[in-house]
Amino acid sequence: MRKITVLFLVVFIAGCYSNGYAQEDNVQRQIKKLERQKEAVTKREKNALKEEVKSINGRLERGLITENEAKVLKEEAARKRAMNIENLMAILDNKIAFLERNEVDHDLIMEGDNAILIDFTDGDDDDYRILGIRFREKDWERPVKYDRRTRSDFVWAIGFNNALIEGQSLEDSPYRIGGSRFFEMGIQWRTRVFKNSNWLRFHYGLSFQFNGLKPEGNQFFVQNGDQTELQEFDVELQKSKLRMDNLVFPVHFEFGPSKFYKTDEKIRYSIRRQFRFGIGGYGGFNIGTRQKLKYNRDGEEIKDKLKRDYNTSDLIYGLSAYTGVGNALLYVKYDLNPIFRDAPVEQRNISLGLRFDLD
Questions:
Q1: Does the global pTM surpass 0.70?
Q2: Is the Cβ–Cβ distance between 174 and 215 less than 8 Å?
Q3: Is 171 in the same domain as 68?
Q4: pLDDT per residue over 81-94, tens digit each?
């Protein structure tokens, strides 16, 4: 019994001794990590200062600020970065002093009321928290975009659709004026053409266009070889519609005023609530044509969805324009290609509606 007791005491003391060394090793590792962070703080703040000075020099070269203004901005940036280094070094030095004084593997300086000064529990030298704020290396070195010349918008449009037929007026169109509609959605990029002015913008992107035609009366589209024509349906139609789906690449030049905003870090040109006028065109491809018919036969409701070529043009190209104030614009587009290939009388699609540019 005495031997067992002695053996237990030896093992217990050895374990405590080993734990003490392990904890001491952990403390030393934490201290070394903090020393590396001190070096990283200086490096990152200096890199951030270089980017700020580079931005200020760019504004000076463009004539946006004077040499005296540039000098003041550089001094302010240098003073701010120096204070950042001083403050962060003090926090890191206090952490090191805390660990050395207590010789305890502590991940936090202050835990009361869930307050965290520095947290290195994730073990990543490039990812840590100071005063509850997460810092990453890329956050320190990311330059401020002083002048953003290109922006992107989501575009969608909706309105009425019809066809201009050779030798006929729109009033004589065989398609319903109110029932034929179009829908468009896509993305565009707008780039300021001139360096120091925003009165002219270049717009480009891609869009899906869905052009629908609803025949008047009880007619539907029939493909007879290389000709597509309207014919009377043998029973009363509740719905008859031809839809052409296109993928196009619009290009526009946009004109209009904008509001100029300038701060110490950036300049911006805003076209919100400003008058705009754009003119251009589009080109692309027909990616599908289908006809929908809905009718009753022998008391049964039937819905036909017929996906065929219908001799519609494969290449799509046309002109378009828009005008308005802000994001809601009056929009018109006109296909220069005929709707149906090799038709004896050419028809061209035309659309009028509202367009919305959502940034």
A1: no
A2: yes
A3: no
A4: 898 888 888 888 88
